[in-house]
Amino acid sequence: xxxxxxxxxxxxxxxxxxxxxxxxxxxxxxxxxxxxxxxxxxxxxxxxxxxxxxxxxxxxxxxxxxxxxxxxxxxxxxxxxxxxxxxxxxxxxxxxxxxxxxxxxxxxxxxxxxxxxxxxxxxxxxxxxxxxxxxxxxxxxxxxxxxxxxxxxxxxxxxxxxxxxxxxxxxxxxxxxxxxxxxxxxxxxxxxxxxxxxxxxxxxxxxxxxxxx
Length: 213
Prior knowledge:
This protein is α/β, with parallel strands linked by helices. It has helices spanning 2-16, 38-49, 86-97, 111-121, 179-183, 186-189, 193-212; strands spanning 21-25, 59-62, 73-78, 101-106, 128-129, 159-165, 168-175.
């Protein structure tokens, strides 16, 4: 056990000094690989507009790997099933309470699966709706009305949910917004430029908040 914690501490010390982000690969058959241009585009936007210096070569890490400790920010998306093994859940919990941040963006259809699996990660914590005056909505750009709507699915308002640990937001779940679609190359979804700009600005808020808290 001591060896495991020594490894985790070393990996965490590495990611504290880095500005790297990664896509989280998970089990269950869901398309964790959807929106392939989204995170690279967001990284470039942040580097160009909010003075970050993030490695633009976005990597992929598995939920159960200690490699996640190399990244202060993880992004997860998809449409379908999600499954975390007990080891995956423990690894993610250790990562998040040690200072990591996970953004989960429902690309449509993910919500019933991820909410169930998050109970394995934090059995005693509920996803709660984040108030519109939370710092994540103003860390770089002002979103006084909260999460922006990027793509329409079921006619529902966009909602931002979170899990807090010792008052720190460690996990953000964006629902009925589809931020990642707005981050993708313009020709993928043909979104108007102002819609893409809203998505990228909200993404920049998330990145800035994750790096500074």
